[in-house]
């Protein structure tokens, strides 16, 4: 199962990397890219989506449940971290010093 989770993580990381390079999806599914080839990124995104779907669909229910729980836990912890960051930022904010 560890190998499958690593594949899913790697595919997701590639998709996030594409997004950070300036590719954004519009309402029609087309990409707007700053200084790049939007068609190439669209094809890469489609390939990543297909690959991720294959990996997820190939998992048995016994494998999918722990992965789902882990993703839920991760999202919960990132929410806590974001809330903590906002609280600290609000305390340090110059608007609170006046």
Which regions have little confidence, pLDDT < 50, spanning 5+ residues? 26-31
Number of strands: 2
Q: Give the C-alpha Rg.
A: 18 Å
**Domains, number:** 2
Helix coverage percent: over 70%
Q: Count helical runs.
A: 3
CA(first)-CA(last) distance: 55 Å
Outline the structure in words:
This protein is mainly alpha-helical and 98 residues long. It folds into two domains: 1-59, no CATH class; 61-98. It has helices at 2-20, 38-57, 61-92; strands spanning 24-25, 31-32. The protein has a two-stranded antiparallel ribbon. Helix 1 packs antiparallel against helix 2 (38-57). The radius of gyration is 18 Å and the shape is flat. Mean pLDDT is 75; it is low at 26-31.
Feature tags:
2 domains; 98 residues
